[in-house]
């Protein structure tokens, strides 16, 4: 089921309709950001959500983590063209799936349309868990299996029960589940946290 994202399709990640279908402001609201946090955008791609996240935390920073450095190059180019956005830091994961960031570096984490790509990678969820600080908040958005004009076909989309099971199986505590139409038009959005010891 899982397929690595094809960098040749990176232009699709820049479709501005994505920000209407899944508004960054709603995700920021669910992350409960106050302005000085460190946030990891896990599977950030070209940074479509990293840059709006950065605007919400002017005293904080966003680590835009992705396994494909050539896709992060598109984010780097955007950041060079927008020097006022100084708090987004592109971070390429190593071949073993681990990023060079410290354990618990993130006060909050955003994961948009990533789990269906990494469901068969046993390193991905432990890495998400490692990066999020105890007590840190996680917001995961995945396309729902439904009739929709965008996104992958339903046979490449994870059922909601699978997404929830992956997160709780990795050790996260579920806080809320939002159906399509509540936060994004075509996404289930799950809010969770890494429990404190």
Structural descriptors:
197 residues; alpha/beta; 7-stranded mixed beta sheet; globular
Can you characterise this structure?
The protein has helices at residues 17-21, 24-31, 50-56, 69-81, 115-118, 124-131, 160-169, and strands at residues 38-42, 61-66, 88-92, 106-112, 132-143, 173-178, 187-193. The chain is globular. The N and C termini lie far apart (34 Å). A hairpin with an 8-residue loop joins strand 6 (173-178) and strand 7. The protein has 7 helices and 7 strands; from the N terminus they run H-H-E-H-E-H-E-E-H-H-E-H-E-E. Helices cover 28% and strands 24% of the residues. The model has no long low-confidence stretch (mean pLDDT 92). 40% of the residues are buried. Strands 3-2-1-4-5-7-6 form a 7-stranded mixed β-sheet, with helices on both faces. The protein is of the alpha/beta class.
SSE arrangement:
Layout: H1 17-21, H2 24-31, E1 38-42, H3 50-56, E2 61-66, H4 69-81, E3 88-92, E4 106-112, H5 115-118, H6 124-131, E5 132-143, H7 160-169, E6 173-178, E7 187-193
Parallel strand pairs: 1-2, 1-4, 2-3, 4-5
Antiparallel strand pairs: 5-7, 6-7
């Amino acid at each position: 089921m899982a397929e690595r994202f094809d960098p040749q399709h990176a232009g699709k990640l820049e479709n501005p309709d994505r920000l209407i279908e899944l508004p960054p402001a709603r995700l920021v609201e669910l992350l409960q950001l106050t302005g000085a946090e460190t946030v990891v955008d896990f599977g950030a791609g070209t940074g479509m959500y990293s840059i709006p996240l950065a605007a919400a935390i002017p005293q904080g920073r966003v680590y835009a983590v992705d396994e494909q450095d050539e896709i992060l190059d598109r984010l780097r180019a955007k950041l060079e063209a927008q020097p006022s956005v100084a708090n987004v830091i592109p971070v390429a994961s190593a071949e073993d799936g681990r990023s060079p960031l410290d354990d618990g570096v993130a006060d909050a984490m955003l994961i948009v349309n990533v789990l269906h790509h990494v469901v068969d990678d046993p390193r991905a969820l432990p890495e998400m868990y490692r990066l999020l600080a105890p007590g840190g908040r996680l917001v995961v958005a995945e396309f729902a299996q439904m009739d929709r004009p965008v996104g992958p076909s339903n046979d490449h989309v994870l059922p909601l029960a699978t997404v929830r099971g992956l997160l709780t199986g990795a050790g996260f505590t579920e806080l809320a589940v939002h159906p399509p139409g509540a936060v994004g038009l075509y996404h289930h959005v799950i809010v969770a946290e890494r429990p404190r010891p």
